[in-house]
Amino acid sequence: MSNDPISQFQIKNLLPIEIGGMDLSFTNSSLFMVGTVAVAAGFLFLTTANRGLVPSRLQSISEMSYEFVAAMLRDGAGSQGMRFFPLVFSLFMFVLVANLIGMFPYFFTITSHLIVTFALAMLVIGTVVVYGFWKHGLHFLKVFVPQGVPGVLIPLVVFIEVISFLSRPISLSVRLFANMLAGHITLKVFAGFVVSLGSMGALGVGTAILPLIMTVALTGLEFLVSFLQAYVFAVLTCMYLNDALHPGH
Amino acid sequence: MFVVTPAYAESNPTEGTISETGAHEGDAQGGGVFPPFDSSTFASQLLWLAITFGLFYLFMSKVIVPRIGSILEHRRDRIAQDLDEANRLKEEGDAAIAAYEQELADARKKASVIAETAREKAKAAAEAERVSTEAELGAKMAEAEKSISAIKAKALADVDTIAEDAASDVVQHLLGGTVTKAEIAAAIRAASGK
Hints:
By secondary structure, chain A is mainly alpha-helical.
């Protein structure tokens, strides 16, 4: 592994596949996607296999994550929003496990690639738009016209609302992507300082303590960010789904 | 501005797009493009994300969500059921306590009634005994009085007879004559004022 903080985001072909001139290779990113899904699904499946009336510790974790997302969705989108529960739960678990797996040294962080987070954000916005029009028809467009706005201001407000709606997938994806990317770069930079200072003799080793402390602290912070970004992603998903369920609010 | 086509990136590796990417040229792969903006990997990432996340979503919605949902629902039902059962048992206990109290009060009342009647009965019996004894005693007394008066009368009658005999004897001794009994009796009667 080189000392370069960017190389950890490098996509490496593991199994070249090319169909119709498109490079669809199985890469390290694909491998970690499979790993994320396997870990998340395996954990949830195995810990709930006993269906214990009195849950074991691990079963409690699965149940807590279920109830955590369920409460989030019910608060954000009302009880009608529960039809989207499998989607929100899948998104939350996928992002959370992907972020946490990325915290292992030398592991690839799939959420540090904008295209992945953007695809997930587009899935959310696509669901909102498709369900909104399917459920409410053209009334869904009310989502751009807040109630109680004076007639004169409506064009301006609608313009702002459209801009804000269009920027949602961008903000949703860039927030997650940028947090993961920046966190991992920072960690790598400080860890790199430890190595380069450590190779500079006794004085260097002494000063290397400082970036080492920083690295440890940042690792803790990054675990928090991993969870927080998964949470934020899921909460915003709930809020956007609320628009699809109740436009004009 | 970050997104560069592979062709562009390949044809202008040194010019790059921004200084950052230029600084990392010569890395193993990516042709000097900042990896997250290397659009040549987008198709592969999107395909594998669709496959993995699609399967994950299916597995969640078909297996995990119904399973955890049923576990939680089962637990909720069980707790509600247990609470109902506890309530029912408590009500039963309360009813049993009430019945017990009622029975106790009844028994107390009955006991006091029994004691009262027993006391009454005993009192009545004692009274009756007293009355009968008194009557008996009265009868005995009356009888005794009767016999005493009879004896007295007899004694008085004997006194007359004895006086007649004594008078006859006295007369005989003193006068040497005989006096008929009838004369003597009349004399005595006159003497005694009868």
